[in-house]
Design goal:
Layout (H helix, E strand, L loop, with lengths): L1 E14 L6 H4 L4 H7 L5 E3 L4 E5 L3 E3 L2 E3 L1 E9 L5 E10 L3 H4 L2 E14 L2 E15 L9 H50 L5 H5 L1
Helix pairs in contact: 2-4
Length: 199
Amino acid sequence: MATQFTASQTVKINVPPQPIPIQHYLRQPQRLVNALADNSRIYQLSDEVFRLKMRPLNFMSLSIQPTVDLKIWAESNGTINLRSLSCKILGFEYINQRFSLNLQGHLSLHQLNGVTTLQGRADLEVQVEIPPPFCFTPKAILEATGNGLLKSVLMTVKQRLLHQLLADYRCWVTSQMSENALLYDSVDLPLTGESVNNC
C-alpha cells in the first residue's frame, strides 16, 4: 500500500549586526550544510551537491536510515535554495525500492528598518509502500504517524539551524577579520635582505 507523508516548517532568524554583513557569508551555501547536520554525516560530492546520512527514523517498529543527496546553491540576491536529488535506504532493500523523498527549501535575507532577518521554509514529502504487516494498519493512523515523524525531522533541523547558523556566522566573521589583520600587518612589515640594501 503506497502512502504519502508530508510536513512543512518555517524559520525566522534575527541576525545581530557584525562587522561583515551576512550577505557575504550567504555566498558560501556549503557552510549552511554544516549548520544543518554534523560534519560526520556529510560528504561533499561537488561544489553544490552534498550527501547527507540522516539519523535513523523509527516508523512503527521499523528503523530506516535514509541517505539523501542535496543540492544547495545561492542566488545573486543572497537567497539560498535546497533541493533533494536522490535518496537511498541502506540495508533495507524492500523499502529502498519503494521509497521516494522530496525535500525543497529556501532561506532568504530580509532587511527592514535596520533589522536583518533570515526567513525560510522547508517542505518534506515521502512516498513509501508500507510492507506487511504494517500495511494492514488503518491509513489514518499510518498517515498521522508518518506526518508526525517528518514534522519532528524538520523541527530538529530547524532547532539546529537556529543555534548553529549564527554561531558559524560569528566564527566566519572572526576568521575573516583575523585574515584581514594579518594581511595588513604583512603589508606594513619592513623590507629585509637584498631589498633593504637596494633602498
